[in-house]
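Dear H.,

Thanks for agreeing to be a second pair of eyes. The structure we're designing against is below in token form, covering all 311 positions.
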């Protein structure tokens, strides 16, 4: 769900609250929802072109701003209207301290505490535990914690990041923010086999690049080459560009592939996904300087052996 969709959902909640005397059962709620959506669809352009009125409006403008100066100007206007707006405060922290993640940490901790206070008063940590991303009111808090998680990783605070990642998964058991992938890399970095396997099993042992690659690195680090090879083979089975990626990495030729990556997101199960993984978790791959040569050799040997077996 995009922030724009979240905004519409908030407006729907307000609409239903205004018509609370009519919303007496599921059928009437559905009717009111259809009425609201019909009204929204009848004036999409006027909504888009309307002058900003709320903190959310200015936050939208900040996200679309073409310069840092303009972005900060819109964020300041959002905070003038609503000083306690969590998302606006978060964006201000990120964009004023983008090059100094260690300075972000105390500011994010302070914002987390402030954002948690009304949620605690409303009983969200008991009522909604495990479903925080499914509840609109708790999403800003989740965004702050996820940003804090990323900042800990950027600062090299691996064990603190692991603790934070595990807490995020308690708050959102379905992991809508993809915390499990970075957490898997953190477990591999600390050679924590027990928690890595438990995490993989928790998410149905999915055959995904972001799970299989760090598991291969984990067993390489543990000097268990057979198991590392097994995960490499499983990776090659789901990502068609695995061998090409490792050949290029072993030959120090990845730059040309980075240059071809789309700025609008990577293509799943291609070399883009492997490159993205490399960019997001450099701390893990820096800890195994010979891994790429070894993996490339393993996959090449595997291909050669298969060809020899063919009649």
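And this is the sequence the design step returned. I haven't edited it by hand at all.
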């Amino acid at each position: 769900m995009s922030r724009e969709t979240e905004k519409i959902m908030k407006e729907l909640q307000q609409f239903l609250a205004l018509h609370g005397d009519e919303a007496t059962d599921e059928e009437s709620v559905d009717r009111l929802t259809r009425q609201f959506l019909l009204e929204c669809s009848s004036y999409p352009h006027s909504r888009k072109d309307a002058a900003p009125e709320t903190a959310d409006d200015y936050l939208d403008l900040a996200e679309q701003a073409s310069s840092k100066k303009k972005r900060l100007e819109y964020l300041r206007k959002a905070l003038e209207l609503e000083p306690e707006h969590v998302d606006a405060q978060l964006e201000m922290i990120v964009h004023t301290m983008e090059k100094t993640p260690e300075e972000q940490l105390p500011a994010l901790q302070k914002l987390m505490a402030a954002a948690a206070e009304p949620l605690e008063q409303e009983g969200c940590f008991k009522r909604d535990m495990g479903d925080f991303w499914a509840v609109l009111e708790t999403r800003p808090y989740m965004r702050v914690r996820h940003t804090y998680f990323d900042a800990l990783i950027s600062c090299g605070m691996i064990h603190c990041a692991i603790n934070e990642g595990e807490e995020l998964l308690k708050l959102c058991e379905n992991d809508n923010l993809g915390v499990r992938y970075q957490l898997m890399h953190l477990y591999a970095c600390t050679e924590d086999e027990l928690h890595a396997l438990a995490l993989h099993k928790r998410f149905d042992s999915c055959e995904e690049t972001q799970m299989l690659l760090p598991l291969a690195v984990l067993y390489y680090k543990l000097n268990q080459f057979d198991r590392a090879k097994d995960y490499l083979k499983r990776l090659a089975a789901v990502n068609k560009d695995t061998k090409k990626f490792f050949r290029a990495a072993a030959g120090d030729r990845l730059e040309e592939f980075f240059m071809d990556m789309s700025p609008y997101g990577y293509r799943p199960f291609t070399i883009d996904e492997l490159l993205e993984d490399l960019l997001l978790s450099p701390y893990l791959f820096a800890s195994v300087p010979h891994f790429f040569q070894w993996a490339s050799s393993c996959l090449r040997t595997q291909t050669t052996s298969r060809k020899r077996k063919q009649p």
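Two observations from my side: The chain has a mean pLDDT of 90. Residues 101-121 form the longest helix (21 residues).

Warmly,
E.
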